UniProtKB/TrEMBL annotation:
Organism classification: Bacteria, Bacillati, Actinomycetota, Actinomycetes, Pseudonocardiales
Domain of life of the source: Bacteria
GO MF annotation, one: ATP hydrolysis activity
Record carries keyword S-adenosyl-L-methionine: no
A Pfam family assignment: ABC_tran
Entry protein name: Iron ABC transporter ATPase
PROSITE patterns in UniProt: ABC_TRANSPORTER_1 (PS00211), ABC_TRANSPORTER_2 (PS50893)
Keywords of the record: ATP-binding, Nucleotide-binding, Transport
Domain ABC transporter: 3-235
Amino acid sequence: MKLVFDGVTAGYADVPAVHDVTLTIAKGEFVAVVGPNGSGKSTLLKTVYRALRPRTGAVLLGAEDVWTVKHRQVARRVGVLGQDQAGGYDFTAREAVRLGRYPHLGAFDRLSAADEKVVTEALERTGAGEFADRPLSTLSGGERQRVLLARALAQQPEVLVLDEPTNHLDPAHQISALGLVASLGVTVVAALHTLDLAARHATTIVALKAGTIAAAGPPAEVLTREIFREVFAVDGSVIPDPVDGRPRVLLRELSG
């Protein structure tokens, strides 16, 4: 499913956090939105899943404006892992992931055997199956993050919106989680802090600076020394991984 930001301006304060962003994300593309704190990454993503209405512009899923169709239609098509999703700590992990199926059910429907199979598969694919029946309140931050990703996958969405999906995850689960997301074949837009992970997994990188797009394109074109300096106030280099040839990012403090 194609996702389009058409001149989107949004924010909570008098000065918008995102200003006049225009961007087309093709079906099946994995877009990593990067930028320093306060650059507007989370604000931009919230306009997709109807957590924040744009002041101007439109967010389109295919040909439909997400703010003019019914909320339930968006919930069926867009899976979300947001920074502020508490997840209901009195739920077990399995119960939390079951919530991902509810947009597909009628008002009086119950989960079917097929729905339960989707839930179990999502738990297993994210490595959360081993603690599926434990309360969320007993899980570590990284374990809860895997459950929330499983819940998004259980929706079987056409578009996945991920706001810092690797927060709280150890290195092994950071790599496996993004590798899983990249393998799904759905449209993905993810706000990421770690440029090395963005370079390794995304097909396109969008660099935000003060709420506007500073650069957008393939990792090799966007992650340049000039962008490191201009957007992130660091120096850096991109080198090929000696094992698989994927781009790897090396950052260092600016000198001089």
